[in-house]
Amino acid sequence: KKLAGRAFEKLAELGVPPTLHPVVGSLAVVLVVSVFGLPELLYTGFDTENTILIQAGSIAPERLLAVVFWKLFLTAVCISCGLVGGVFAPSLLIGGALGALYGQGAGAFAHMVGSDISPATDYAAVGAAAALAGICGTPLTAVALLLELTAGTDYAICLPLISAVGLSVYVEKALSRGPSAFALSNVSEDALERVAMLSEEEQRAVQVFKMLDKNKDGTLSQKEF
């Protein structure tokens, strides 16, 4: 997203007004979809997500990789240029494609060693839920939604799905020092700077209160302040 934002800043410096940035973003979407033949990148409801969840084992790995890469790229471009449609549906698509890809690889390896594992469709559902929970910060919604999208046909995935969602949220919280991607998707750079300033002030306030707690007289020296 930062790289895409810098690219549009360069366009502005070259004289392209911000009002035309959404047009540039739209052209990028049309170009990628047309050249690479990936209609899955266009949001037309949950049909695309359902297709991946149902046919995860039969979609070519190269196509799944292309969907993941270009969906990430175009989502960043659209957010940066002002075509903000949210990250809810993209997170489902990206997570489902990654889960399907992992399921295909795990299935091929299991077949080589003469073992059986769950079908790739289960991995796609788990991947979609984990991505949605980590990106949007909605673990309960992710679990309920994916169980609903799979029509409750296989509740055996419930435990691994909940585990993946919990791990995703934990990793996101551990690696992130600020708001989630969902919270940042519609926020301007100026607003983000103000959020960072508030965060620093809050940290400073905590330090001050800790110093006051240490000093019995409840005062701070000039150096401490």
UniProtKB/TrEMBL annotation:
<feature type="transmembrane region" description="Helical">
    <location>
        <begin position="64"/>
        <end position="86"/>
    </location>
</feature>
<protein>
    <recommendedName>
        <fullName>EF-hand domain-containing protein</fullName>
    </recommendedName>
</protein>
<keyword id="KW-0868">Chloride</keyword>
<feature type="transmembrane region" description="Helical">
    <location>
        <begin position="123"/>
        <end position="147"/>
    </location>
</feature>
<keyword id="KW-0869">Chloride channel</keyword>
<keyword id="KW-1133">Transmembrane helix</keyword>
<dbReference type="InterPro" id="IPR014743">
    <property type="entry name" value="Cl-channel_core"/>
</dbReference>
<feature type="domain" description="EF-hand">
    <location>
        <begin position="200"/>
        <end position="225"/>
    </location>
</feature>
<dbReference type="InterPro" id="IPR011992">
    <property type="entry name" value="EF-hand-dom_pair"/>
</dbReference>
<dbReference type="GO" id="GO:0005254">
    <property type="term" value="F:chloride channel activity"/>
</dbReference>
<dbReference type="Pfam" id="PF00654">
    <property type="entry name" value="Voltage_CLC"/>
</dbReference>
<dbReference type="InterPro" id="IPR001807">
    <property type="entry name" value="ClC"/>
</dbReference>
<keyword id="KW-0812">Transmembrane</keyword>
<dbReference type="GO" id="GO:0005509">
    <property type="term" value="F:calcium ion binding"/>
</dbReference>
<keyword id="KW-0813">Transport</keyword>
<keyword id="KW-0407">Ion channel</keyword>
<keyword id="KW-0406">Ion transport</keyword>
<feature type="transmembrane region" description="Helical">
    <location>
        <begin position="92"/>
        <end position="111"/>
    </location>
</feature>
<keyword id="KW-0106">Calcium</keyword>
<keyword id="KW-0472">Membrane</keyword>
<dbReference type="GO" id="GO:0034707">
    <property type="term" value="C:chloride channel complex"/>
</dbReference>
<feature type="transmembrane region" description="Helical">
    <location>
        <begin position="20"/>
        <end position="43"/>
    </location>
</feature>
<dbReference type="InterPro" id="IPR018247">
    <property type="entry name" value="EF_Hand_1_Ca_BS"/>
</dbReference>
<dbReference type="InterPro" id="IPR050368">
    <property type="entry name" value="ClC-type_chloride_channel"/>
</dbReference>
<dbReference type="InterPro" id="IPR002048">
    <property type="entry name" value="EF_hand_dom"/>
</dbReference>
